[in-house]
Amino acid sequence: MPSRGLRATMAMVKPKPIFVVLSLSLLLAACIEEVGQPSASPTSAPSFRPSPLSALGDGSPPTATPPAVVVTPGENTPACAAASTLGFLQALQSASFKVYCPTFLPSGFVLQDVHFEETAQPGTPIPGPGTVVAIFRRQSPKASIQFVQGRPSLSVITEVRTSSEDQLGETAYDGFQGNLFAKGVLARSPDGFTHVISADGLTADELQQVAAAMQPLVP
């Protein structure tokens, strides 16, 4: 029979194989878990770039997104006031008539919007030539000015015409004449289209300067 000292030694030795097996099991489990997880390294992360194709979502094949129309001023394109040249050129793409832009505005004016609007022939559903509308504003002193060209609505014309009891006089509008009123200018170009300048916060002299500086756009 083993002595008491031998039994104590054996008792200390026996757990050792179990500890080793348990340690190996834990190490193996950790390795398996690490292999199953995605790497945290940034170099292996998948990258995503939006596709230039747009899916329709109805099972149809994706279609390419049409490129935007890019307009560039030509050598003879006038420099429209308040950096509005590109906006007027963009609107010109949809217009069937000659479009004019202001090459002079009193200081402080900023372009708010310029766009082409489709309109119907008066009293009919037939599409008309439409209008080009441009709006500029000034914060101090407060002022605004709007340009409408093409076939504007009667209300736009009436608002300017009734802003003063009588016509204040005539004013040059590029190569033809316009009629000056307290809050704007009405003119008709040689091709038969109407041009309306309506303004708030401008003097008659400033309106005349703006009208005289109108120039046709040449792409």
Question: Short summary of the structure?
Answer:
With 219 residues, this protein is α+β, with helices and mostly antiparallel strands. It is 26% helix and 26% strand.
Ranges where pLDDT stays below 50 over 5 or more residues in a row are 8-24, 30-67
Q: Shape, please?
A: globular
* Multimeric status of the protein: single chain
N to C succession of SSEs: HHEEHEEEEHEEEEHE
Average the pLDDT over all residues and give the rounded result: 77
Task: Give the CATH H-level superfamily of the domain at 81-216.
Answer: MucB/RseB, C-terminal domain
> How large is the count of helical segments?
5
Q: Just give the CATH class of the domain at 81-216.
A: Alpha Beta
Q: How many strands in all? A: 11
**Biggest beta sheet attributes:** 7 strands, antiparallel
> What's the architecture of the domain at 81-216 in CATH terms?
2-Layer Sandwich
Derived structural class: alpha+beta
- Distance between the ends: 113 Å
Our estimate of the beta-strand percent is: 25-35%
Numbering strands along the chain, what is their spatial order in the largest sheet? 4-5-6-10-9-8-7
Taking all Cα atoms into account, the compactness measure Rg is: 38 Å
Proportion of helical residues: 25-40%
Classify the fold: give the CATH topology of the domain at 81-216.
Phosphorylase Kinase, domain 1
What does this structure look like?
This protein has 219 residues and is α+β, with helices and mostly antiparallel strands. It has a domain at 81-216: Phosphorylase Kinase, domain 1 (2-Layer Sandwich). It is built from five helices and eleven strands, in the order ααββαββββαββββαβ. It has helices at residues 4-13, 15-36, 85-92, 154-161, 204-212; strands spanning 53-54, 63-64, 100-102, 110-117, 131-138, 143-150, 169-173, 176-181, 184-188, 194-200, 214-216. The strands form three sheets. Strands 4-5-6-10-9-8-7 form a seven-stranded antiparallel β-sheet, with helices on both faces. A two-stranded antiparallel sheet has the order 1-2. Strand 9 and strand 10 (194-200) form a beta hairpin. The radius of gyration is 38 Å and the shape is globular. The relative contact order is 0.12.
